[in-house]
Design goal:
The complex is a heterodimer of chains A (115) and B (115). Chain A is mainly beta. Helix content of chain A is 0%, strand content 49%. In chain B, the strands form 3 sheets. In chain B, strands 2, 5, 6, 10, 11 and 12 form a 6-stranded mixed sheet that branches. The chains are: A mainly beta (115), B mainly beta (115).
């Protein structure tokens, strides 16, 4: 068990560029979550996968945001035409479904700065 | 819609003393989970303690315990024998019943531990 990993850890981009983040969950964890966290706030739910199926998306996830988990393992979060308001920490978390007893494990996050 | 409120942006405690962090939530559900997460500076978020709403007994994990008042929709975290390593942001979180698995986080309480 190597924990949840996220890459890159930091990303600086110019407004209007596209960015893609990757999350590698703990192996055998079938649930995967993406969150956005801005300074001084708690994580805000963005989207959630069960295996490869994206089961829920937040209203925060505008049409510029897309997430995939093609083989039910790693996941990517893409932001198109980035805006300065997209600057935040993007967190990934995974958990194994044990019928309600599971615990979420968080990755270290990807910090995005849009100039 | 469910909400989680942490009314204490910052708390301080002397080393070896006890501190209580407050959390209230709003939901119309009867079956849900509540969590306290710790986010140390520049480190990833980890689970401190979990409480199932159907359990009347308050959860305890070593020096960490909760006071769960379901009717009042209150979920406070007590840290006993505070240590310097307890200094972090603490987030209260609510998870909806099985079927949606969506987590909602509060805005956090920054805990400072004074030597």
């Amino acid at each position: 068990d190597t924990g949840v990993s996220q890459n890159p850890r930091h990303k600086i981009t110019k407004r209007g560029q596209n960015v893609t983040f990757r999350c590698d969950p703990i192996s055998e964890h079938n649930r995967l979550y993406w969150y956005r966290q801005t300074l001084g706030q708690g994580p805000e739910f963005l989207t959630y996968f069960q295996n490869e199926a994206q089961l829920e998306k937040s209203r925060l996830l505008s049409d510029r945001f897309s997430a995939e988990r093609p083989k039910g393992s790693f996941s990517t979060l893409e932001i198109q035409r980035t805006e300065q308001g997209d600057s935040a920490m993007y967190l990934c978390a995974s958990q194994k479904d044990w019928g309600g007893q599971e615990t979420q494990y968080f990755g270290p996050g990807t910090r995005l700065l849009v100039l | 819609a469910q909400t989680v409120t942490q009314s204490q942006p910052e708390m301080s405690v002397q080393e070896a003393e006890t501190v209580t962090l407050s959390c209230t939530y709003d939901t119309s559900e009867s079956d849900y989970y509540l969590f306290w997460y710790k986010q140390p500076p520049s480190r990833q978020m980890i689970l401190v303690i979990r409480q199932e709403a159907y359990k009347q007994q308050n959860a305890t994990e070593n020096r960490f315990s909760v006071n769960f008042q379901k009717a009042a929709k209150s979920f406070s975290l007590k840290i006993s024998d505070s240590q310097l390593g307890d200094a972090a942001m603490y987030f209260c979180a609510y998870r909806s019943p099985p079927g949606t698995y969506k987590y909602i986080f509060g805005t956090g309480t920054r805990l400072k531990v004074l030597a």
